[in-house]
């Protein structure tokens, strides 16, 4: 008995830290659908106009000397009323449980870190996309301000040389067994056998940096290479220019297609931030190809598969050219009892058909552990244009409670 107690004491003494926290989101959203070629009168997809949600985001960190285990499971319940036109197979409510991140990290020697498991690893200066990252290229400017990207199962090695140089290599592993990825409301966790490495150099205390990336991924049993990079240069206290690009191998033409962006950030003395980013994707659909896609989607059988691509703001961009702009303004003083309120306005404009999607967000603290979010979105352009499909506008409200 005494030996067991002694062993337990030694174990607990070696634990550097143990942290557990929980973020809970409670909200509701209203959406307005104007109909489209593939969803006329909302009689094909039967998308819900009103729904509520509860999302729990627990997090546990356990540190053992220079090693740690991080677990971030997620639980989301979506509640929506049934309507007479809804097919019997449609579900009024759904509950999804998944592991967004779960990994172990070890540091066998100084400046070397090894991570294994499902995790998120992003880089780059841009706000809307991360083209040079083969693992996480998703659109980050989703309507919900508290949206988070999904983790990927990988092995990752980070090595830092002094304060200026860093080297990272990531290799995708087979997905973890997770039943929630098979649900209708979640994206399948599919391995593309990604492999990527990057080398980054920064100077001026991190205000400026430049990185080169190289990697490959497998799509439809064909492996394609990608070579790219990203960087940012701070001109002065107000202006910063940046870029994030990749050249992806096209296995059909044996050439490399360009996918990237260039941006400018301006920050006022008061802290208000303005951004503008130009995006070009040589692999995107042309206007003629979009017309063909819309014709195909007139078939109800194919239309049911369009929702994940055309209705989610976090889906990869399908066109060739875009302009993204945003402004963020933080109030210096509390307002109507709300602490540190922040207002943001974002717009994504398609240069192909002049459609756009704008979103607005207001967030402020209600208490030390409570945050309020009020957000909305508006699509503009011709009906059936790229960024104005079935969804016309949306508005939502949510509260986050942190424990």
What does this entry look like structurally?
The chain has four helices and 18 strands. The chain is mainly beta and 403 residues long. A hairpin with a 5-residue loop joins strand 15 and strand 16.
Brief rundown of the structure:
The protein is mainly beta. The chain contains four helices and 18 strands. The longest helix is centred in the first third of the chain and has 13 residues, at 2-14.
Helix and strand topology:
Blueprint: H1 2-14, E1 15-33, E2 50-64, E3 67-79, E4 93-106, E5 112-119, E6 152-161, E7 165-172, E8 195-203, E9 208-219, E10 222-234, E11 239-250, E12 255-267, E13 273-281, H2 287-296, H3 300-303, H4 307-310, E14 321-330, E15 339-350, E16 356-367, E17 370-380, E18 391-402
Antiparallel strand pairs: 1-2, 1-18, 2-3, 3-4, 4-5, 5-6, 6-7, 7-8, 8-9, 9-10, 10-11, 11-12, 12-13, 13-14, 14-15, 15-16, 16-17, 17-18
